[in-house]
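Lest this sound abstract, we let one protein speak, letters for residues, whole numbers for local backbone shapes, and leave readers to judge:
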Amino acid sequence: MRKCPYCDFNSHEAKQTIPERDYISALISDLDQCLPSVWGRTVDTIFIGGGTPSLFSSEGMDRLLSEIRARLPLAPGIEITMEANPGAIEQAKFAEFRSVGINRLSIGIQSLNDDLLQNIGRVHSAREAYRAVEHAHDAGFELINLDLMYALPTQTLPQALQDLDNALALEPTHLSHYQMTIEPNTWFHKHPPTTPGDDLSWAMQSQCQERLRDAGFEHYEVSAYAKPDKQCRHNINYWQYGDYLGIGAGAHAKITDAMQQNITRTAVVKHPNDYLQLASTEQRHATREVLSRSEVPFEFMMNALRLTEGFPNSLFFEHTGLPLSTIDGALQRAEEEGLLEYGVQLIRPTDKGQRFLNTLLELFLPADKR
């Protein structure tokens, strides 16, 4: 495996056999350290992501899920997602993953055009991507997300639309359809490719959105589209500023302590070798931050305003512990600028607000960071 030139996620090239048994033991040790912060809570979703978790065996996944069940109550009908790449080795294990309880698969196809896949450094072919989705259906997965990018190097508008049509023909229940951006600390940042300009990228986005709507997909988040009642519950919790526990190398967590009335964010050390050594200690956390009262409103809005239908006003207090009046001035300014609709029961970004989301979010920054 190798790291894609556009990827800024915490992934590392596998140059030797993956120490699966030791890594899963480390995950369990990590979870044991976290348990006091989540006693009494029920787990509604599990998301197994980062790098390529489908390289692990089904036996390893079964062990991990069994250990989680032994420590925490899982909600009936829990959503358990695993990320996968279209490689042939992984496809062969899809039925096994389904049998151990994973019920949602997220496949990173990125494109169904061989030339474009080569342009972005993907190691799989379009044929492998087609076969991966077919194997997912055959394995009994009823919830399938496809990651599909647009505005790729050299991509034309007809190619972007054809990519989307081909992806829709594979009958996913969910699409993460997002623009490729050049991120810092990536190969593409050091060696920038020629990508479509703003006008062409916008044409790709807007015309693809029309096709998704016509195909029965609801646009419920900036880059997320789903068939009715097939939204990703894990991500909705994230975007609504709910709590989440993160274990594993590079994992992030956000936990609210109702008794102390504070919110703590943590990030685990990034390199897997470091993680294996530190998973059972407090040193596994590279950072730990208790958010200040002034930071919480921006953090909440940064997530919640990604939801196209917005959020109920009551959610702000429920997930921050702060009265809505804390951000009343920013809400009024956003409404005056046509970026947001601020009603008695619901707050939602307008179409303009969705397109210029960064401008909207800047209104909610703490005064000392504007």
